């Protein structure tokens, strides 16, 4: 008998009359089982019904039972002829052991033929070089952030640098405790997370500077500024967290690594950038060491008003007061529409340069200590009878060649390829293979992830702000994603799995900038009480954009520093990932200001024209005095 004689799903874990774990089986033929048990019973005392796992010719129960890890699953004794199709296997099972045995029996007739659908192998030296390059990029990016924060924010900037060191240590500690596999995208996620963690500091410090300018004391400015900044920080991080969770659910192993680091980074940044910075800066403030020292917060004494003048943070002058953002809203929206139309034409003509992750096939990276030539690589491929017309060189000095094949190479071909090039160039090639089925599945999952992330962000922004703000925000985010597609199509940069991760990261992160501005516009609207005309809406949008413009630039700059470092100094393996991030982040600077808020103005002014004045502060329901209190 073999696994095919079992009814599909007929093996189950159960309990006998003594409440001991057993395995019950349901067979297709009671007569066949009776014949088998009759034969086994006749061989007493060797009357064991041995259930083998992938039995091979020559294997014997007497030999296997002496081994620590025998090839059989179970060997119950047969004490009578069993003319039934329902069987119980009893023994000293635990519940888990009984469940495992049932699952193995349900797997059907063995052996099962395994078909390779997706594989990736990386040479040790290649992996080490890529790791070293990415870490170097991270060090350079972080150093740039440190210099920027100390120059722009002085004492609070130094505190931000201290908390960033703590942030990095805690993230690495958590990853070590989780025994998480740190992939190259994962390391990139850690570096990106450092840039994102400092955003909370930027938002908080800018609010503190505003409170100092209206004339508040250092202590009061610290308390009020920190409280006002928390809402925007919270909303921005939750939005990014939603996208990270979507990435983790739909991603492959390397993308899951990136998503894991991103999730941990967001949670840890709340601990260090929000709570840690607040505690450290609070100690300095409460010590009175910073009293009457506005320059320590990068605030000029001449910019400070008298608190008794009654000036609020919404009345402060900015370098952008002369610029009317709303006046040219039609021009801005037509420019964005034109870019979309041009992008559609570009994509239809040039299309995307799909890597093997989506187009299926095999991709091999050959690394050498000296520059490679096309003739040299072609000759090597001909020598092993594996020619390819698709050879692309990477790096400034052409020390890496990427060879692509339309079909999936067999294990023997991969072994031959590796042996030859490792012997020739002293570096083991990195090889990835994807079948058409997996390629389609990855593409489908990428689209699902993009759609789900977009819907989640719209829902969240609609709950925290309003529906129109959610729609305006997601349209600008989708424009950022579309810009990345256009850029990759024009320059024919290869699109791989990390590309999807980068697009989703841009969507999750870029919403931060939109939320900061939306939060300020909401506050201005609440101060106004209601929008009576479209001019009131324009006033709120203009003031909100002017007052958050510097903050928006500074928050995006801190992340761009790290991404530029990844592009310039990081590994070639994550170059497309880094470029996609850079293009998306640059696009988000413009789209959040000149598209998202302009769209919201159009939606809101239309609502005002149609329905009349709109209250911006929800009225609390009054209790009827005659109604008894409970």
From TrEMBL:
Tell me where in this chain the SecDF P1 head subdomain domain is found. Answer: 10-112
Q: Does the keyword Transport apply?
A: yes
Superkingdom of origin: Bacteria
Give membrane topology per the record. Multi-pass membrane protein
Q: Which GO terms describe its biological process?
A: intracellular protein transmembrane transport; protein targeting; protein transport by the Sec complex
GO MF term list: protein-transporting ATPase activity
Gene Ontology cellular-component annotations: plasma membrane
Show the Pfam families listed in the entry: Sec_GG (PF07549), SecD_SecF_C (PF02355), SecDF_P1_head (PF22599)
Which residue numbers delimit the Protein export membrane protein SecD/SecF C-terminal domain?
116-278, 422-604
**What InterPro entries does this protein's entry cite?**
SecD, SecD/SecF_arch_bac, SecD/SecF_bac, SecD/SecF_CS, SecD_SecF_C, SecD_SecF_C_bact, SecDF_P1_head, SecF_bac
Its main localization is: membrane
Could you describe the subunit structure of this protein?
Answer: Forms a complex with SecD. Part of the essential Sec protein translocation apparatus which comprises SecA, SecYEG and auxiliary proteins SecDF. Other proteins may also be involved.
UniProt family annotation = In the C-terminal section; belongs to the SecD/SecF family. SecF subfamily. Belongs to the SecD/SecF family. SecF subfamily.
Q: What is this protein called?
A: Protein-export membrane protein SecF
Tell me which species this is from: Listeria fleischmannii FSL S10-1203
